Amino acid sequence: MVFENSLSFAKRLDEQDPLKRFREKFIIPGKEGLQKIYFLGNSLGLQPKTVKAELNKILEQWADYGVEGFFEGESPWMRVHDKLVHPLSKIVGALPHEVVVMNQLTVNLHLMMKSFYRPAAGRIKIICEAKAFPSDQYMFETQVRDHGLHPDDTIVEVKPRKGEHTVRTEDILSTIQQYRDSVALVLFSGVNYYTGQVFDLKTITQAAHAMGAVCGFDLAHAAGNIPLQLHEWDVDFACWCSYKYLNSGPGAVGAVYIHERYHTDPSIPRYAGWWGYDEKTRFKMEKGFKPEPAATGWQLSTPSMLLYASHKAALDIFEEAGMDALHAKRKLQGNYLLFLLNELVIHFPGKIIEVITPQQEQEHGCQFSILMHFRGREVFEALAKEGIMVDWREPDVIRLAPVPLYNTFEEIWQFASILQQILEKD
Length: 426
Description:
Aspartate Aminotransferase, domain 1, Aspartate Aminotransferase, domain 2, 2 domains, 7-stranded mixed sheet, 4-stranded antiparallel sheet, 12 helices, 14% strand
């Protein structure tokens, strides 16, 4: 498609958008009756209008049945999980029994480290990306120390080359090859939170397995954003949150994928809880942990039905929209935003702004990161005054993420136009 930098062209794209009606399913933040431009789906997705109704169903069932709500009513709580894993399995490319909805992201990463980071016989290294989200860094550090190891001797970070902002795939593969005799675990993000770079999960998994290592991923910025085929790519495990692109609310329940080959392997260590016990005999309350023969066997505690309800409201929208249609719009929106940003880079010579997100279609999702070489914080604050909600990452990056469910092409054009006006001011 040949893009144009004009409001009329952006409006035409919106008129032709097969997903345009889905914007009406969300509550758009506003002030004094005017909707803001919300490009923060990479931090917290917007609230579906159906969330209140789903929450009320739980409250009414609680009122009507008390604890029997787990077994009685229109939608017994014991079966709600089944309604979540089927749409989620489509989003992440897994078999339904390979997905479990539980806890939050970092808790789940710690649980997966218990099962899949097993340093022994010289294999102790963890290979990850440099500048992973801090929670991942802290998780790595404490897990390594728990094994009596030192992070400096154990954690290998793959960094961008000098003068570059993103990590080259060939450098990831060469690092895995370099530590082929000592690597125990390869664990990367699906999408780097700072740059928006999409990693090649399939290739990384193949390389890790070729060296005898386990491979997992933190999909916080990937689930609901980019195409995923976890089972087909033979990924061992993955964790994600649901409050970003999955629009399930602040502090929403997280989820885990565990490849089915591990479900009935008794050699896999894990922390155990009653909710992960085999459902067929769970209520016999017997000693001796017997896990559910699925990813659900990693559950610990009774889940929050209120969090499940919010998650269901959001996932229902994904089911209705369809992942193929969402990815098609995401690509078109991303290409249009890149077209406008690249025009600004040319319009302002001397590296005033720089797009540090990869521009190849397969190497970025919804998020784009702009490195501000001049007046960055001031520009960010000026955008906020204009009703444009993006975010600021120290020391000098503005991140924005137009998402296909509720953002428009007109909003993308308005952002670029207002950004140009701000940059033109002395």
